[in-house]
Amino acid sequence: MKGAKIYGIRDIRVEECPIPEIKTPEDIIVKVKAVGFCGSDISRYGKLGPHTVGAIFGHELSGEIVEIGEQVTNVKVGDGVVVCPTTPCFHCEYCQLGKYSKCESLQVIGAKEDGGFAEYVRLHSRSVLKMPEGLDFETACGMEPACVVMHGFYRTKIQAGDTVAVLGVGPIGLFAVQCAKIFGATKVIAIDVFDEKLEIAKELGADLCINAKDIDPIQVVKEMTGGSGVDIAVESAGNPFTSAQVLSLPKKGGTVVFMGIPYGDVAISREHFEKIVRNELTVLGSWNAVSGPFPGKEWPTTLHFMKEGKIKVKPMVTHRISLDQIPETFEKIYKRDSFFGKVIVFPEGKEC
């Protein structure tokens, strides 16, 4: 089979690899139907390099089961499945409490174990959920990032009628726009510096879109909320600047939830930092997409809303590519040659 292996910074190669085999009675082999680029993949390609040199990259995937171990009971050969790529140890203090996102040795496929940028992948059977009838593989491969956002909103105390600002509308931010509405927000404000992203955010339900390159988003948010600010501000850009700026968006007693990861030091001015104290903000970090009982309610909940058409993936997809196109596409994203939204890989060379 073909697989895209990462060897170093800006060094991904599509190579012939052995088809994975069942190793334990609870293993399954999945034929990958669709797999997405994650923002963390892009950072690891351009800045950080691989966790394991030569590992098959990728972790946002859906596929069809082609083989199962003798003790597998939750799925069968031929089932379409969505994949939870994150595996806790199930033994540490946090795992014993069912707090799997806090596991001391959390692993994600595509890091130390081979991932989804391939024709086939081996997984533990507990890491998949059966796809409902009518859900397509392209939409289903967006499950993991959508669950990351769902996990973040479960961390908050969002209520029906709240106003939510989403700072940064890449894929995580676009899922945040949709999930905010699902959780009951009546007004969602999308903020970014790219009009292309804001147009997608509007299509996916944002009530107001602000290009922060043209206007001060803090001022606009204050004006539209009668001078108070939003109930919840989501930082999903993963940018050092916005990681400070987001603190000035909520009202007094409001909430900030960090879903993005800034791959750089964050310098916070007094103007932004003092909002934590003076406005008595709740500041939350949100990591990954799993909880107890594993993989957590994020997964069936997200699957339900995808089936209902209330969490959409297709509008954010700008590039659909084959396995062979992975290296050149990563390089184009790194060089910022053109606008990229969500990139989906189809190992079979056709859309699903």
**Separation of termini?**
19 Å
- Classify the secondary structure makeup into a structural class: alpha/beta
Question: How many DSSP H or I helices?
Answer: 11
CATH superfamily of the largest domain: Medium-chain alcohol dehydrogenases, catalytic domain
Main beta-sheet strand count, sense and barrel state: 7 strands, mixed
Helix content: 25-40%
CATH-defined architecture of the largest domain:
Alpha-Beta Complex
Low-pLDDT stretches: none
Task: Assign the CATH topology of the largest domain.
Answer: Quinone Oxidoreductase, Chain A, domain 1
Number of strands: 18
What this model shows, in words?
- Belongs to the zinc-containing alcohol dehydrogenase family.
- Pfam families: ADH_N, ADH_zinc_N.
- InterPro entries: ADH-like_C, ADH-like_N, ADH_Zn_CS, ER, GroES-like_sf, NAD(P)-bd_dom_sf, Zn_alcohol_dh.
- Keywords: Metal-binding, Oxidoreductase, Zinc.
- Helix content is 27%, strand content 26%.
- It is an alpha/beta fold.
- The chain folds into two domains: 2-142 and 313-345, Medium-chain alcohol dehydrogenases, catalytic domain (Quinone Oxidoreductase, Chain A, domain 1, Alpha-Beta Complex); 146-285, NAD(P)-binding Rossmann-like Domain (Rossmann fold, 3-Layer(aba) Sandwich).
- Strands 3, 5, 6, 9, 10, 17 and 18 form a seven-stranded mixed beta sheet that branches.
- The chain is globular, with a radius of gyration of 20 Å.
- It starts with a strand and ends in a 7-residue tail after the last strand.
